[in-house]
């Protein structure tokens, strides 16, 4: 057996990623060794490579990459529920000092992965874990999204946004989503009422779609001033604002005067703290159920990148040029 593997290594901040041979990991107790078929590229990966993203606690040099889809090739001790040859997906590494997914193999905590949906190919499955877990932790875990509610997703065409729209729809909610003019058709294709945030003020669309009452749930996937807009758009008393990018300084007055609720979503916490990892696996199993039922898809950028193209893939994500999630494919299907 070959004891080395190819991996994309961020040697230092702002440096070009290097594809080189490193030691192939050995699965420890509770881990499985996965042959990576495809690795999703997230904005956080590009930030870490640029020396930012301190909250991810990934010191360089490091193999980056949070998301994967692949095949189990070896089981560590005390692993149940997985078999060699099984196709899996998950968000198992790339932060907190752990090896990332942009490598031929990765040893992962079995609690963080799940069986790949059979309706999605490897590239699609690799694009899904981070964004779906983020959507679920907000809409389901924090806000208990349910039938009959009016839900507003800010950034409905983005990675988290497109999945949040579909998750809210599958829960029976009446879904609305903001986007730029060029993204409105895609948002409508997901089953949401599309709102051009540049053409309509918060007050205008709250009046138009809720008769001035506000939305039951508002999920901010954009951050900054969009979170402030969310406080204005939410319903009084029972309304719930969520944000996965609520990291700035904001006035709580608009929210407080409505007696509404705010929840932050920090999807990386189980990887950084070791607590709650089983829940990530459970969420991914729910994603597979929805995908297999035809209620969940993910738009993947059509450009095909292999591991040697990692720097171009990172540039595409950093510059926001992708039409959907950017994925690096390590094994041809």
TrEMBL record:
What highest taxon heads this organism's lineage? Bacteria
One example GO MF annotation: zinc ion binding
Q: Does this UniProt record's set of keywords contain Oxidoreductase?
A: yes
**What are the record keywords, sorted?**
Oxidoreductase
Q: Which stretches make up the Enoyl reductase (ER) domain?
A: 12-328
Q: Which CDD domains match?
A: MDR6
For this protein, the record's Pfam families field holds:
ADH_N, ADH_zinc_N_2
User: What PANTHER family does the record tag this protein with?
Assistant: ALCOHOL DEHYDROGENASE RELATED (PTHR11695), RETICULON-4-INTERACTING PROTEIN 1, MITOCHONDRIAL (PTHR11695:SF294)
Q: What is this protein called?
A: Zinc-binding dehydrogenase
Q: Which organism is it from?
A: Pseudomonas karstica
